[in-house]
Amino acid sequence: xxxxxxxxxxxxxxxxxxxxxxxxxxxxxxxxxxxxxxxxxxxxxxxxxxxxxxxxxxxxxxxxxxxxxxxxxxxxxxxxxxxxxxxxxxxxxxxxxxxxxxxxxxxxxxxxxxxxxxxxxxxxxxxxxxxxxxxxxxxxxxxxx
Length: 145
Fold this sequence. Notes:
The chain is mostly helical. 59% of the residues lie in helices and 3% in strands. It is built from 6 helices and 2 strands, in the order H-E-H-H-H-H-H-E. The chain has a two-stranded antiparallel ribbon with strand order 1-2. Helix 2 crosses helix 4 (98-106).
């Protein structure tokens, strides 16, 4: 293989990597937007989570990690405060250690279940119009409408 071909092949790999990173960034920001939307609701609205608590904590942690979630005064939120607020909105009890629950979810491997973010990304790739996180929120009305 000539040096020119190796350079072009390397540039192609770099471009593919950059595109994959941009796609992953876009998917993460989409999840952040869905969580931010959820956080505008109140507990008495009757919303509820249709998935597992582990999926919820993993999704919230990803949104916390890759987004900028702020309180009403503009201060950055802690993950525990995000988990407690969203759990209250979704009428679920918050795990005593939400960070550990989220980490456990992100480390899932195997045939039975893959991490929420892997499944979320697959769903968005298959249908860019879907809002997988919001689809797991049930209630009096559809938030995605």
